[in-house]
Structures are given as structure tokens and as C-alpha cells.
Design goal:
This protein is 51% helix and 15% strand. The chain is α/β, with parallel strands linked by helices. The strands form 3 sheets. The protein has a 6-stranded parallel beta sheet, sandwiched between helices. It is globular, with a radius of gyration of 21 Å.
């Protein structure tokens, strides 16, 4: 089985390859093609993967090839993993900087930064989807490109249900709750619903019984996990649910914006500088065996430890606990998804898929994030209880913004772009929205037509 990774020079690619190394079942991935436009990043990542394969000492490790030719990368692919970053980390840093100058949030998927990132990314995602439909029409596409729900919806215009979005946030949250309740995560049913980076765990069933109320009543236990510390036990009990960590940007917006403004460096700028150092080191001539992987491991540990640092500063909760540093495991979700489709091994996974009739407040084409049953025919959203009104307001407002981004990316219209920014719950003025469009058009050459 052949896997193509778009954004193959990306920092998280070793997580995917490492998961493949641990898969010994019949029909496993035998060949990985890395596609990236940056030859230096491709060369560095190829070294890291070679070190990984050598450390695993597996004679049948998936072969790795690298290319800058998209059609060559797609030809013959059974699965395509999309993990692009249009504009790179320099673009992310600019997204944050422009938004914070206007006093609004510039996070890469939430608020003004998410809108700007979407405007840059959707045209590229649509073009790639058209290319996949032509060159590899039988391939299944697994999308991790952010904003993941929006990009999945854009690609679905061309690929239908053959594109499925994944995210590690709900997986990590469900795993932490299950373990706290004394259950193995794979034995728990997680009632999770919403959009990507905008969802809630409303129940967690173990042996048919919902154990979430027991956790919500226990302040000490609740505040032993990241979400409990971020939101506080009192607010979680008020909601009767545990939100995805990204909802901290909505529920504590003013506090978070202030923390971001007071930080010495934005998250995007930190990652830009950090990864610049990593790629320079991993790509250095004459590097001994294992050194590229060691550099990657060090960089990843620092990256995980500083994740959402400004939010923790705003909440006054200090450093991340050791138990919170474990990856949510998007690479494991991707592997489980591929297995379920390729081998018809049924699995239940939280995924980004088209709504159909799952949530009555949204239309059938809207991509939502819910538990899905996956088999050889793809991912099928499972029935869930409808959203409470407070969640309906956020979900429908953000989905409306996503639709305006799709429209603006297609039309190239400044008016459509202004509308996308102005309708977002975290942008508080049409005048601010207009200035944001001007700022992003100046910062990003691809958006210059919006000025």
C-alpha cells in the first residue's frame, strides 16, 4: 500500500512514519512518498526518517522517496495525507502580528488569524483536490491541513466523502478523561460533537454508563487535567461538559489576547525560529547517523512543553504537567483510519466529515467533528444528541464564517473577505475587519488583490 504525504518536509512527519514502523499487519503501508516544495526541508526530513528506520531495526520498513513534483507524488497513491502550511511559519507569525495590532486574537485556526490562514489555504487545497481527482481518483485523502474542518469542506467540493479530516485534540481530551475515570481509552465511548477546534465532550460512557457527571463533581480530579486547569471546575460544571482546549480562546478571549500581547514572542514566531534551527542542524553536511533524529526529538519536546503557554498564563496555571505532554496521537488516528478503510476493520473514531443529517442546525455539506464508524466505504457520522443553545450559537456563527471564507477564496472579493472577518465572534467591529483585510493583504502577497 502506498502513502503520499503532502507537506512531506513538515516537522510532524516522523510521527506518522513512526506509527507506520509499528504496524506489522498484512497490507501495511510499504512505500511513503514525501512531497514538498522546499528541497532543504525534504532532505532534512528524509534523514530523520532514515534514522527512525535504523533505530527500529526493521528490515521491511516502508521505503521512502522524496519529490517536488506533485503529479509524481500522487501517481499510484492509495492514501494521501495532507499536512500543508501555506505561507509557512513566517505566514503564521504575520497572521498573529496583524491581529494583535488590532487587539484581536491571531491564533492560526481561531479568530482573525484563522480567517487569514483559511483565505490563503483554501485556494491551494481546492487546486490540490482537483489534481488528486484527476491523477489518483481512487485514493483516500486524510486531511490534517489547518484550519482542518474548513479545508476538509473545501476539498470535499471535489472529492466528496473520499476526504476525511483528522485532529488530535478530541483524541487527547477523550484519552485524558477516560484514564482519569480509571478506564482504558479504547473501551470508552466519547460523546463529542462540534466543529474542528470547537467541540465539547458531553459524556463518556464506560460499560454503558455515563461517568462524566462523576468527574464534573470532583474538583480535585477535574483540575488535575489540562482542560480542568484552563477552564476551572466551576465553569465546566456550569457547562455540564468539557470543552476542547481551543474554546479557551472564546470563553476567556480578553484574558488570552492580553497574555498574547504581553508575551515576548508569539507562538508562530517561536516555532519559526525554533524550526529554522532544527532544519539547519538536520540538514548539515556530514551529520553522523542518528543525529538528525536526536535533533528532532529535542525540538519536539520543547515544542510540546510550550504548547498554549499564553492560555496557561492567562489562566494562572503555570507549566504543563507531565501527563499533558503526550501527543493526542493524530498519527495513530491516521493509521487506524487507513487500516479501517484498507482492511475493512471497523473502527470508531472522532473525525471531520460531512454532516448529512447528523446536526439539524447545519446543512448536509457542512463538515463537522463527531464520532464516526469507519469501514471499507469510508467514515460515517454516528447519531448524536443535538447541541444545547449556547453551543448552537458558536457552531453556527463559526460555520457561517467558514462559508464566507470559501466564498471569498473563490470570488477574490474584498467585500466577501471583510464579511468573513466581521462575522467572526472574536472580531468586534466591521471597522476592525476592514483594517484586518488591509493588514493581511499587505502582509501576504497572495492576498494583495483584496486591498
Amino acid at each position: 500500500m502506498r502513502l503520499t504525504i503532502l507537506g512531506g518536509g513538515g516537522f510532524r512527519v516522523p510521527l506518522v512514519y513512526g506509527a507506520l514502523l509499528g504496524d506489522h499487519a498484512e497490507g501495511r503501508v510499504s512505500h511513503v512518498t514525501l512531497y514538498d516544495e522546499d528541497p532543504d526541508r525534504l532532505a532534512a526530513m528524509t534523514r530523520v526518517l532514515a534514522d527512525l528506520a535504523a533505530a527500529a531495526a526493521e528490515p521491511d520498513a516502508p521505503a521512502v522517496t522524496a519529490t517536488r513534483d506533485l503529479e509524481e507524488a500522487l501517481r499510484g497513491a492509495d492514501f494521501v495525507f495532507s499536512a500543508l502550511r501555506v505561507g509557512g511559519l513566517e505566514g503564521r507569525a504575520a497572521d498573529e502580528r496583524v491581529a494583535l495590532a488590532e487587539g484581536v486574537l491571531g491564533q492560526e485556526t481561531v479568530g482573525a488569524g484563522g480567517v487569514a490562514y483559511g483565505l490563503r489555504t483554501v485556494p491551494v487545497a481546492r487546486a490540490i483536490a482537483r489534481r488528486i481527482a484527476r491523477v489518483a481518483p481512487e485514493a483516500w485523502v486524510i486531511n490534517f491541513t489547518n484550519p482542518a474542518g474548513l479545508v476538509t469542506e473545501a476539498m470535499a467540493e471535489e472529492l466528496g466523502d473520499r476526504v476525511i479530516g483528522i485532529c488530535d485534540s478530541p483524541v487527547g481530551l477523550g484519552r485524558r478523561i477516560a484514564r482519569l475515570l480509571g478506564a482504558r481509552p479504547e473501551e470508552a465511548w466519547i460523546d463529542y460533537v462540534g466543529l474542528n477546534h470547537l467541540g465539547w465532550v458531553r459524556g463518556l460512557r464506560i460499560g454503558g454508563r455515563d461517568e462524566l457527571p462523576r468527574l464534573l463533581a470532583d474538583t480535585k480530579a477535574l483540575e488535575s487535567i489540562e482542560e480542568g486547569r484552563l477552564f476551572g471546575a466551576e465553569w465546566l460544571r456550569s457547562l455540564g461538559a468539557i470543552p476542547n482546549e481551543y474554546l479557551h480562546y472564546y470563553y476567556f478571549n480578553r484574558d488570552t489576547v492580553r497574555a498574547y500581547q504581553e508575551a515576548g514572542q508569539t507562538r508562530g514566531a517561536f516555532l519559526r525560529d525554533q524550526q529554522r534551527g532544527f532544519y539547519a542542524e538536520a540538514g548539515r553536511a556530514g551529520l553522523p547517523a542518528g543525529a538528525a533524529l536526536a535533533a528532532w526529538d529535542r525540538t519536539r519536546a520543547e515544542r510540546e512543553a510550550t504548547y498554549m503557554a499564553e492560555n496557561r498564563e492567562a489562566a494562572g496555571v503555570g507549566e504543563r504537567d507531565e501527563s499533558d505532554l503526550e501527543s493526542g496521537g493524530y498519527e495513530k488516528v491516521a493509521l487506524a483510519l487507513m487500516r479501517a478503510i484498507a482492511r475493512d476493520e471497523r473502527a470508531t473514531l472522532i473525525l471531520n466529515v460531512r454532516n448529512g443529517s447528523t446536526l439539524s442546525v447545519l446543512d448536509a455539506a457542512a463538515v463537522i467533528e463527531v464520532p464516526c464508524l469507519v469501514d471499507a466505504n469510508g467514515a460515517h457520522p454516528m447519531g448524536v444528541e443535538q447541541l444545547p443553545l449556547h453551543a448552537v450559537g458558536l457552531v453556527t456563527a463559526v460555520k457561517a464564517v467558514e462559508r464566507e471564507i470559501l466564498a471569498a477564496a473563490a470570488s477574490g472579493s474584498r467585500a466577501d473577505a471583510v464579511k468573513a472577518f466581521a462575522l467572526h465572534p472574536l472580531v468586534d467591529s466591521v471597522a476592525v475587519a476592514r483594517r484586518l483585510v488591509d493588514g493581511y493583504a499587505q502582509a501576504h502577497p497572495g492576498l494583495a488583490h483584496l486591498r
